[in-house]
Structures are given as C-alpha cells and as structure tokens.
Amino acid sequence: MRVRSCGLSDVGRKRKRNEDAFLLDDGLQLYIVADGMGGHAKGEVASAEAVENIHAYVSQGREKLAAYADAPADAGTAWAARRLVEAAVQNACYLVFGMAEVAPEHRGMGTTISAMAVSGAHGLIAQVGDSRVYRVRDGRAEQMTEDHTLVREHVKAGLLTEEQAKVAPYQNVITRAVGNRDWVEVDTLIVPLQPQDRFMLCSDGLHGYLDLAEIPGIMAGPPIEEAAEALVRVANTRGGRDNITAVVVEVMG
Asked: Where do the domains of the chain lie?
C-alpha cells in the first residue's frame, strides 16, 4: 500500500509549552504521536527522545517490515514485524528512564506513545498510555487502541459505567507510560488496510474534545492537510486545555 501523511501540533490555549512530539516518515511508513508528561521534569524531552529512538530502532529493522510485506501469511514474518515495533517502544522506555536516572532534574518524566508502521497491506500499531489511534473507513470511525488509564481499568472491572467514566475526576491518571520505569508493557496489534482508509494518531488534548461519530465528518472529505488543521481547530475552539497533536495517514492503494 502507498500512504501519505501530514501532522500538526499546537500548544493549545492554556499551556505555556508544548510537551507533545510527533513523527511522519512516508519513506519508512512510520508514524508516531507522543504526549510528554512531567512538567518541570521535562516531558517535552521524554516525548522527543522517545520518538527519535523509536524511529531509529525501526529504521534499523526495516528489513523485517519488508519481509512481512512480502509474506504476510507467514507467521514468522508477522511475529518479527510485530516484535519490531514492540521492542522499539520498550527500547525507548529504557532510554528515557536512563536519561532521568543520570539527570535528577528529569526524574519523573515520561511519555505516551501511539505508533503505526505500514507493511504492505497491514498496519502494525504499538500503544502505551492514553494517546490514541483511530481508523476511518466507509464513513465510520473506530478506536483501534485502548487507553492505559485508571478510568479504563475501572470500566473493565465493572466499577464504572461508560457514562460514569466520562465524568470521573481522575480522567488523566495514566497506568502505563514510556520512561517512568525501565520497562513497559506495550500493546501491539496488526490491522488490515484498504484503499481510502484514513488513520488518525492523536494526543488526549485532541480526542478529549471529540465524539467518535463526528470524526469521519472532519477527516473523510477534505485533503488530509485540511483535516489535520480542522482537528486542531476543533480542540482549540472547545477549550484547548492541553497540547493538541494530530497525525493523519491516508492509504492510497
């Protein structure tokens, strides 16, 4: 599959600095959104370093993506490609944690990661934290990732309903992050691609303002550059309480 992408990040209306980072590489077909955490502990350092490290790691293992694209029915090539994106995030976690260990002023920094690598007719997604990946297909949006938050754990345990979760006071309590420990469990999944699919990778400063049903209307019609601008504009118009990052990836066929 051929793909093209665009991305946009905005500080929002309340924050003084942007701790988000993102990456677009249409040659490697790798896309990442990272939402840094830590404030004075330099969340922007964590997100930028994690993105750069994941990019380098996947670049070095690109032959595994190529092998999977050539033989997608082979269980071995699928496992190797999936393991590549998982290991890339885990390696970034170890790096960011190590940076904080040698620089006490950075202790406590961390970042979310939502990443997607395209390999042939499949996308490989890696997820840590509460940034998200959505797919828009045939006028319908679907959330492809699961948030690693205390609220989501309570919903899964039956302690909260979906409606109660929307107004829970601890919305932003993250249960997994890259960098606050030396290892992190990474969710990975492989999704089939179709021509005209559009994917959105975004930080919670965007998806916190969006209803699932309105995402196709923003993303499906205009060129992807206009879609990214519209997404950021919606978040700012509705409050812009956090940094806002949107990456849009379009499958060309």
From this structure: 3-251
For the chain, counts of helices (H) and of strands (E): 8, 11
Architecture per CATH, domain 3-251, reads as 4-Layer Sandwich (3.60)
Reported as half-sphere exposure (CB side, CA atoms, 13 A), residue 170 has a value of: 12
Indicate whether this model's pTM tops 0.70. Answer: yes
Phi, psi (degrees; rounded to nearest 5) at 124: -110, 120
Which residue reads 């990836």 in tokens?
Answer: 249
* 54 in Cβ contact with 22 (< 8 Å): no
Residue 125's beta-bridge partner residues? 116, 189
Strands of the chain, DSSP E: 3-10, 20-25, 30-37, 110-111, 113-119, 122-128, 132-137, 140-143, 187-192, 198-202, 244-251
pLDDT digits (tens, 9 = 90+) for 156-192: 999 999 889 888 988 889 999 999 999 999 999 999 9
